[in-house]
Design brief:
Radius of gyration: 14 Å
Strand content: 25-35%
CATH architecture: Alpha-Beta Barrel
Strand order of the largest sheet: 2-3-4-5-7
Distance between the termini: 12 Å
Structural class: alpha/beta
CATH superfamily: Fe-S hydro-lyase, tartrate dehydratase beta-type, catalytic domain
Largest sheet: 5 strands, mixed, barrel
CATH topology: fumarase
């Protein structure tokens, strides 16, 4: 495994992630979205219905971090929850290039990531570190969901490890 970090800035192109492999350590800078089981099915539905643009949300080249945003900080939630994992393939088709969370994904999800030119990376649950690397935050959609709303964060050097890329998973090694 490469001990140095690879820097990635948002928005992310398919070319930006084409050379990333399972186990690579990355630092993400730029704007990322945050959502989990309460909001991701809504975001998927709004994309399917062509309503995301009305909310000022463009998923092309985006990052979605599977988390809630609370005053206590942010930390990854399990990406293999039904509502979250079932949104990964369609949101990848919608342009999301990087999904951040924790936990093992089903092989069919890993394959869908590969087919759509997207990857999945895991973030250790280190809320203090992540809070320190969050520059700004705002609700992008569904404010009524409180900390489970769809947020847009601006981050600097957000650390993660590529966990699924090119049809492979770190959990299968």
């Amino acid at each position: 495994m490469n001990e140095s970090f690879i820097r990635i800035n948002t928005p992310i192109s398919k070319e930006d992630i084409a050379d990333l492999n399972v186990g690579d350590k990355i630092l993400i800078s730029g704007y990322i979205f945050c959502g989990r089981d309460a909001v991701l099915p809504r975001i998927q539905r709004d994309f399917d219905e062509g309503k995301l643009k009305e909310k000022g949300i463009d998923l092309e080249g985006s990052v979605i971090f599977h988390t809630a945003v609370s005053p206590a900080g942010i930390g990854p939630t399990s990406s293999n929850k039904l509502e979250i994992e079932s949104s990964i393939a369609p949101l990848s088709e919608a342009g999301v290039r990087l999904h951040l969370g924790k936990g093992k994904l089903k092989q069919e999800t890993v394959d869908a990531l590969n087919e759509n030119g997207s990857i999945y990376a895991v973030i250790p649950p280190v809320t203090a570190l992540l809070g320190e690397r969050t520059i700004s935050r705002e609700v992008a959609a569904y404010e009524e969901l409180g900390m489970e709303a769809f947020y847009r964060l601006k981050v600097k050097d957000f650390p993660a490890i590529v966990a699924a890329a090119k049809g492979q998973s770190i959990y299968d090694k």
